[in-house]
């Protein structure tokens, strides 16, 4: 089966997968772009699971200050190497997570840290809908970045500040 360059570009633009990965996924699905995207997403999640246990000792501390200068947040985001910590994808993720913390005021990183009476979707950072893409959770956004950069990424800690709060 011949796969068009246009189909590969579509899959690639939506998944950021490699050309050969996108082509293989399209071949596997008989040229169906949506199914190919799903295959690549599943593959990305399996990569994330494999990397979950690896030590993330490098990273950045990112700050976000709202334009009103009344709310701010700090996030420590860890990865495995300083090389990845300097990439645009990683820094953008750190910035977006700091903005998420400032906007949504989570109390915990994961649902496991919260008590059983706590609503994980509103109080746990990783369970919250991502503010820039509400159809995905913060955990899914992190998993997508793990798949792109090829290293374990985890939120180590965060702090939110509000003037007078």
List the helices and strands and how they pair.
Blueprint: H1 5-15, H2 19-28, H3 33-51, E1 58-65, E2 71-79, H4 82-85, H5 88-104, H6 120-123, E3 129-130, E4 133-137, H7 138-149, E5 154-162
Antiparallel strand pairs: 1-2, 2-5, 3-4
Helix pairs in contact: 1-2, 1-3, 2-3, 3-7, 5-7
Question: Explain this structure to me?
Answer:
There is one protein chain. This protein is of the alpha+beta class. It folds into two domains: 5-51, Ubiquitin-associated (UBA) domain (Helicase, Ruva Protein, domain 3), CATH 1.10.8; 58-162, Tetrahydropterin Synthase, Chain A, CATH 3.30.479.20. The protein contains seven helices and five strands. The protein has helices spanning 5-15, 19-28, 33-51, 82-85, 88-104, 120-123, 138-149, and strands at residues 58-65, 71-79, 129-130, 133-137, 154-162. It has a three-stranded antiparallel β-sheet. Strand 1 (58-65) and strand 2 (71-79) form a beta hairpin. Helix 2 packs across helix 3.
Structure described in brief:
This protein has 165 residues and is α+β, with helices and mostly antiparallel strands. Helices cover 47% and strands 20% of the residues.
Tags for this entry?
5 strands, Helicase, Ruva Protein, domain 3, three-stranded antiparallel beta sheet, 2 domains, 165 residues, Tetrahydropterin Synthase, Chain A
